[in-house]
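PROTOCOL LOG
Step 1. Enter all chains and additional molecules of the complex.
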Amino acid sequence: MGQESFTAQKRGGGAAATLPTTNGGRPARSVSSLLPRGRQIHKTFNNIKITILCGFVTILVLRGTIGLGNLVSSESDAVNQHLIEETNRVLDEIRSDKDPDDLDNPSEPEYNPNVTYTLGPKITNWDQERKSWLDRNPDFPNYVNGKARILLVTGSPPNPCDNSIGDHYLLKAIKNKIDYCRLHGIEIVYNMAHLDKELAGYWAKLPLIRRLMLSHPEVEWIWWMDSDALFTDMVFEVPLKKYDGYNMVIHGYPDLLFDQKSWIAVNTGSFLFRNCQWSLDLLDVWAPMGPKGPVRDEAGRVLTANLKGRPAFEADDQSALIYLFISQRNVWMDKVFVENSYFLHGYWAGLVDRYEEMIEKYHPGLGDERWPFVTHFVGCKPCGSYGDYPVEKCLRSMERAFNFADNQVLKLYGFRHRGLVSTKIKRIRNETVTPLEFVDQLDIRHSEQGSSGSQS
Amino acid sequence: MGQESFTAQKRGGGAAATLPTTNGGRPARSVSSLLPRGRQIHKTFNNIKITILCGFVTILVLRGTIGLGNLVSSESDAVNQHLIEETNRVLDEIRSDKDPDDLDNPSEPEYNPNVTYTLGPKITNWDQERKSWLDRNPDFPNYVNGKARILLVTGSPPNPCDNSIGDHYLLKAIKNKIDYCRLHGIEIVYNMAHLDKELAGYWAKLPLIRRLMLSHPEVEWIWWMDSDALFTDMVFEVPLKKYDGYNMVIHGYPDLLFDQKSWIAVNTGSFLFRNCQWSLDLLDVWAPMGPKGPVRDEAGRVLTANLKGRPAFEADDQSALIYLFISQRNVWMDKVFVENSYFLHGYWAGLVDRYEEMIEKYHPGLGDERWPFVTHFVGCKPCGSYGDYPVEKCLRSMERAFNFADNQVLKLYGFRHRGLVSTKIKRIRNETVTPLEFVDQLDIRHSEQGSSGSQS
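Step 2. Run joint prediction.
Step 3. Record the structure below.
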């Protein structure tokens, strides 16, 4: 509609501009043949006047419309418009904040091609340091009742999304994570700050994960999860026992990784890192491809040349990790568990349309293609302006995933969404005077004991 | 700017419409005096033609602009515009979802003036029921290491905000709550569903709190907090020991309540309810003023007539609670702790401009006017279109409160915001090879033991 109207408006403007000379002029000319010279001059003069006036109109009209931003078609719209402008003024101010220390700010070192980028001074004895800290701080154990302490880390940019609806889906995504983490005793850190200007974008998780490992020695596993990934199995738990001998757990396929060298062999949208020296070392060798500008661009060319199916673009954290796994296989892979027995990361396109079928045939707690643990909206970029998929499809699919998961949470309270694209909920049972019966039956944390079979 | 351009555009349209008859006509008339009759007819005919054509232009131009929604002034804007429209289409679909069960949906009973509204069947023996459940479920104790289990409850509407920036500040508000609750071992429920159509708006917290009490017998205290309230003291803890003999803790002033009968004597933006029969009973007598429509409107008149300073509007949950406290003082007040020794709720207007002064003079952990525990943006309605304060002031103030609190969290990681309205952060210390020193110094959960003096 915007584009259609846009052309309509152009047509209008165009017509106004050309009218006097073509249409306004024609009849005058046909008359002129009947007129003596002096009158003809007078006529031409009139036509010019009309031309100028119509031109003036055109200018007025265009001036009235171009650069109008949000056109108001009613009083209330006018108010909202005003609101949006006030808002933008504040945001511009907040964004464009200057600081005297900007120059000598250590978080923005000068780019020097001769120096390899580092996340910070090399730490070499983390395992011992951490162990002795844990011994000194019995109030902060890394295992509670035999369960490893997990810190789920996610985040989004400090400023509002380009696409205003993006913030709404960031809100739904964190609500979804709050629910899962409450049910499974997992702590959450939601990051909204750029810790390192050089590692902006998808690389930002690296300095963040390192910082959190060093600041939270009590945490055994750091679980990174993208803001566009949703938990869609609220019962399933990561089978940590299975990873006792490993320091990293990431979703992927070994054959895609080592036989095909595919750039999507693993996915960095949801992975776990053990808090240990090995992980710090991996971060140290992973980060140097990340610095924005010439380094990241050049690294991108190397990755595209070496990874199957990779389009030509700057280095991304996922391709860099895959390249590292392939080129230094012997160094790292004995401690990396490439998981695909359940969806630690599940590609949304194959899943969101099958939720009804899953509800009909299966039940939460399976975590695999029957009931995906995580549905990840790769390529949707709800917070950016340009994703790889139509916004419409992305939003409807995210709404479906959110509600599919939310139904598993609402069940305890006696509600469910009216449909998978419906924000409205309905009762699935009436209020009762014996509510505790349902707590025993439906609280996921109780059934958890049962599903903890998935832990070994 | 929207309005100004709107008038400009109207002027343009108007000019285009009147041009041919006034300007286009005048010269023709002046010539006509010199012309014989036949030619004059021809002239008039020409003028009519021009009139029609210019009129046509006007229509084109107006059609091209009126009802244009978002006018696009550049290619990229055109794309964003298209994006917004796709978005709205999905949202409209999601909002306007119909359901066959809509009629027999128990969550929307027919309004019957002869029946007093209830939150559900009367529960009479909750204390015993809950106690025996706790005995049966030692894995879900209501006290952990001597600390009562708290569930913080907040929420926002299921659909995007009227003002698109609203969702961004809802996101920052929940990030702020996630931080506080992680640091103090408090669980969070973020509600985005309308549990009860009759108790929409500020009344929605009542059925939600009741439902959560009945579904979470392991929780000792339910802490309601509005979405527009931020934790601004990340160290302070609610001194629960102080409330051992009480079932409700709410910020307010006894003299305003009982002497002045002020409608702002207490604030329901942040209060605690003990999970017990008494609380269910209070909810039962509190709710009947809430049902949307005639009941809420009539109740509003009663409240305005009885509470000092209350404007005339439908019944709100806060006024209703105050009215209940005043009219049934003997029934309830011996179990209600009206707290004002710290800011369980802190009115933003008096606080946000003093943050720099607080940083200079005081430190987190005080919770009172020296370092407010909670800063509550009463009347800002960032998610609605119409607040009682200028959007600009509200947004800047919320940004300041968020960053003031965030600095207390970032300190552990070695960063702070460049200014209180800056989303950018800067290092306050360089990366080190001995990070654990700072954990011992700066982790709020350690200093907590110290500040737990505030608990008794």
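Step 4. Note key features.
The longest strand of chain A covers residues 266-274.
The mean pLDDT of chain A is 83.
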